[in-house]
Design goal:
Layout (H helix, E strand, L loop, with lengths): L2 H11 L5 H7 L5 H8 L10 E4 L9 H16 L3 H6 L1 E5 L5 H14 L4 E3 L6 H11 L3 E5 L8 E8 L7 H12 L12 H7 L2 E3 L2 H12 L15 E4 L6 H11 L4 E3 L25 H10 L3 E5 L6 E6 L5 E3 L2 H19 L6 E6 L5 H8 L3 E5 L3 H4 L3 H6 L3 E7 L3 E3 L9 H17 L4 H12 L1 E5 L2 E3 L2 H17 L4 E2 L2 E8 L13 E5 L4 E6 L5 E10 L2 H20 L3
Parallel strand pairs: 2-3, 2-4, 3-6, 7-8, 7-9, 12-13, 12-14
Antiparallel strand pairs: 1-5, 4-5, 9-10, 10-11, 14-15, 16-22, 17-22, 18-19, 19-20, 20-21, 21-22
Length: 564
Amino acid sequence: MGYMEKYREWVEKLPENDPLRKELAEIEGDHRAIRERFQLDLAFGTAGLRGIVSAGTNRMNYYTVGRATQGIANYIVKQGRAAMNRGVVIAHDPRYFSKEFSQFAAGIFAANGIKAYVFPDLRPTPELAFMIRKLGTISGINITASHNPKNYNGYKAYWEDGCQVSSAVADGMTDEINALDYFTGIHKMSFAEGIQSGMITVLDESYDRAYLDMIESIAIHSGDELDLSIPLVYTPLNGAGSLPFRQMMKDRGFTNWHIVEEQSMPDPEFTTVGYPNPESPAAFKLSEELGRKVGAELLMATDPDSDRFAIELLGDDGEYVWLNGNQTGYLLVNYILEGRKAAGTLPKNGAMVKSIVTSDMSAVMAEDYGVKMVESLTGFKNICGRIPYLEENNYQYLFGYEESVGYAACPEIRDKDGISAGMLVAEAAAYYRKQGKTLWQVLEGLYEKYGYYAEDEPNLILEGVDGAERIRRMMNYVRSHLPETVGGYKVTEVIDYINSYDELFRSNVLRFYLENGSWFAIRPSGTEPKIKFYFYSCQKSMEEAVAVNTRIKEDILTMVNAVE
């Protein structure tokens, strides 16, 4: 069925009083707008469904959410009665329609005979991941668009291991979803009916306490080892992190930390920040203003669903310096390894996990402590998905992360977790302050010890159907015109993960190694309309490493931008 036929079907089948029907009437005759909404169906990416909230098969709305939920319900039903009885736990973020979509999904699961557990209000994504294992559910759903702009929403799907669904499970769910249309075969009951029937249970505050207890159990140092009067600033960027982060800081005894009040409460407009992504230094504007007032050494931020975490540090010149995900990862890897070694709790069979597009500096650090660094594909369904592999091979998981400001410090929480990452970074800052050092000085010391590693991670945003097609053409062009030299350096090896590599699953990623030890990678984002680039170099000074990366980057971006 072509996109115009889909459009006409929706106009015909949508109820007269449905706001989506009016929305579609307003674009009648606009073939470009219709094509954007109907040429594609939303499909599972790195983290499930994600799209603009509006009418269409390529959008987030009650019909796409209903179809996806019914498909997942059908998949669960095929696992048997025991799986249905275990049920599904559902969470949501502060975005428009997030709570409504979550309750709508709960009603569909309930109508299909599948128990649903829901939170009374918004909760962090990592708390959902933890609750799957605690409750023993077969699956989990989170209605969230993570760090995307305000007009987006999304649908993250998890399986019984507490990880986002693996490729095999996602394929099975996708088959069930694709067998459905948007207007028939969706079994549903109201949220109120689900509660009354006992098929929907609202979780109480004891579950929040269990999540925080698990996080606080991974502390490295405590008590007199820390300077708990260290001045700190935190912003949840109007998301789900506010309450759990406040409670965690209180539990740990921090006495001089401050929250950005304008961003402390849920706001689906994200009025004070616009783009609520802590990967962007612009997200720290209000944090910097507050930091200067209170003399903060460390600024911390989580995104709206509180799985991403980023920081800024007070540099030697008195200005705040934003750290990329690799740099925060260096601090966390060092703090965990150094602290556990000092405490005598560093296992001989310890292991950490990083993604294939994350810097090698942490691998060098891990090796220095006798810890194995394992690689995975991008996304925490893959990073935390390596935990069973490590356990089967008698390794003890210590930490996992990737450059996109995601960190998983607790094996019981099998997703990136901004609350636990925030606890460890705040703790590290307090620990080193007790020793007369700042985190900035610690980072400088790591470069002096292990080498000056520079990272550059630009991306090209290409929205819509045409943008997706151009990204596809770019990847095809690079594959068919593999460069022999880049930035003046010979290419010594190319790994194309589309054909799988080693024991890893397939992924649309190209990785190039150069004769000077530098490397770079190219991949389309699984959740955003972007093609992403990763450039890494280690040299004798940071200036030299940055210069090398710049030459390599300019060559590759020139090549890719030439593809129309």
